[in-house]
Structures are given as structure tokens and as C-alpha cells.
Amino acid sequence: MSETAKKAILIMAGLLVCVLTFFFVYQPNSDEITDLEAQSSKLQSEVNRLTGLQAMSAQMRPTAEQHESEMDMYFAEYPSRMTEQKAIYNVYRMMVDTGMRVTAIQPNKDMTFMQGGTLVGADAAAMSENVEAATGAGASAEISPETKVPINEIIGKYCTYSLQVIGTKKEVYAALDWISENSEHMSVGPVSLAFDSSSGKLSGQIDVNYYSMNGNGIAYVEPDISGITIGSDDVFGYGVKKSKKRSYQE
Q1: What pTM, to 2 d.p., does this model score?
Q2: Among residues 209, 203, 167, which one has the least CA distance to residue 184?
Q3: pLDDT score at 46
Q4: Cα angle vertex 114, ends 222, 58, to 5°?
Q5: Which DSSP string do the residues of 21-51 spell out, in sequence order?
Q6: pLDDT at position 28
Q7: Which of 55, 74, 78, 83 is the most buried (most CB within 10 A)?
Q8: How far is Cα 230 from Cα 241, in angstroms, rounded to an integer?
Q9: Which of 187, 185, 222 is nearest to 83 (CA)?
Q10: Looking at residues 121-137, what average pLDDT do you find?
Q11: What pLDDT score was predicted for residue 25?
């Protein structure tokens, strides 16, 4: 074989090595480098975003702590639970203070109005009753309402008591104000009253809603019911004296 042929073969072999090196070594490594650079850029963007969030978190922490403190103060205004004993005691106090007679009391089921730190709609409240205990969400607040739990685990509840009442217009107005202005966080529900010609007074039904915050850490205090007399005509018997606190026009 001549020297020229040998040189040609060597040149062809060198070119073949270069081509193989490009396709099997350089090109894969180049693609991998491109992918790594893209991933690195994406991760750097995420690092920059998280760094910005960390700075914002540090700035917002005092505001968040202030809001949490305000929420604790707000939740502390509610009882941790509302028992039938306490609810009926409040009805008794209303009767004594306003003079409106209560002839029957019908408690209804507890309903959830706040869960997971957000308010629950009326339809959802009916469906979510006691679901917390079954699913484990807010279980501590559900099982032991007086136990302090994080704000997002507090469960807000209300129970409606339907009262059969009879009284003058002045007494009814006084009772509605008494309910709305009470420190126990009560509210007036549906009111259905009609004029009773036999007594010359208004009679019918007033619904009263009692609110509580399960898990706010406020210990339940038993009301003093030693002075309450149970009757057969009125719920609390005869002889209940009206306290003079308001003056309403008939």
C-alpha cells in the first residue's frame, strides 16, 4: 500500500472519530448541559421567589401576630360551649328583666357556622353538623370545647331555642332589645306573633340563637339557678318579678 493511500485511510479514520465523538459524546453532553442550565435557571427563579416571600413573611409577621391577638380577644367573648342549663337561665333572666312570659322552650340541634377559620354558609352548616368529630378536623375542640386550640381549629356553633311567649308590645320590644344587646352573643331569629284578643297581648313564637366557640379555652361557668322555680303555667312558675330597667311606650 502506497504512502498516499495510508495517509488517506488515516485522514478518513480521523474524520470518522471526530464524527462519532460529536454524535456520541459532545452532542449528548451538550444537550445535558442545556437541560441543566434550564433547570438551574428555574431553580434560581424559585430561590429568588422564596427569598422574596421570606422577606415579606418577616415584614408581615408583626401584623399577623396582632391580628391573631385580636382574634383571640374576639373569640374570648364567646362561651366555649352553651349548655341547655345556661340557655334556659338566660331565658329566665330575660323574663325577669322584661316581664314577657315564656310558656314553653324548645331547644334545637347545634349548628356549625365557622370551621377551619372561615364562615360556613347556612346550607353547609346544616350538612356539616358534627362532621368535625368524624373526620378528625377540629377533633380537640369538638371533644373538649374548653381546651385551647389553634385559631384555625376553633369551631363556631349556634343553637336555636324556640320560645312560646305572651306579653304586651312594650314587653316584647324590651325582650327583643334584651336579646340583641346581651353580652352572651345571642341574636333574634324568626319572630311570629299575633294579637291574642282574650288577653289583649301578643302571643306566639320567638327564636333565640345562642353562639359558642368550641376550643377558645374559656372555661364554662355554671349559672346560679337556685332561685328559679319551675312552674306548670309559665315555664318558671308564678311570682316572677319584673325588674325595672327600661321604659317603652305601649
Answers
A1: 0.63
A2: 209
A3: 83
A4: 110
A5: HIIIIIHHHHHHHHHHHHHHHHHHHHHHHHH
A6: 66
A7: 78
A8: 14
A9: 222
A10: 53
A11: 61
For residue 242, give the C-alpha cell.
Answer: 319584673
pLDDT in tens, 38-96: 888 888 888 888 887 777 777 767 766 666 777 777 778 888 888 888 898 899 899 98
Report how far residue 219's alpha carbon sits from residue 2's, in angstroms, rounded to the nearest whole number. Answer: 108
Rounded CA gap, 90 and 45, in Å? 60
Q: What is the pLDDT of residue 114?
A: 84
Q: What is the DSSP string of 175-190?
A: HHHHHHT-TT-EEEEE
- What is the signed CA dihedral for 250, 194, 204, 225, rounded to 10 degrees? 10
If one compares 190 and 217, the residue with the highest pLDDT of the two is 190
Please, is 92 exposed, middle or buried when counting C-beta atoms within 10 Å of its C-beta (0-12, 13-18, 19+)? buried
- Name residue, grid cell 318558671: 236
Burial (CB count within 10 angstroms: exposed 0-12, middle 13-18, buried 19+), residue 205: middle
> For residue 186, what are the β-bridge partners?
210
Q: Using alpha carbons only, what angle is made at residue 210 by residues 223 and 146, rounded to the nearest 5 degrees?
A: 60
Q: Alpha-carbon distance 137 to 132, whole Å?
A: 5
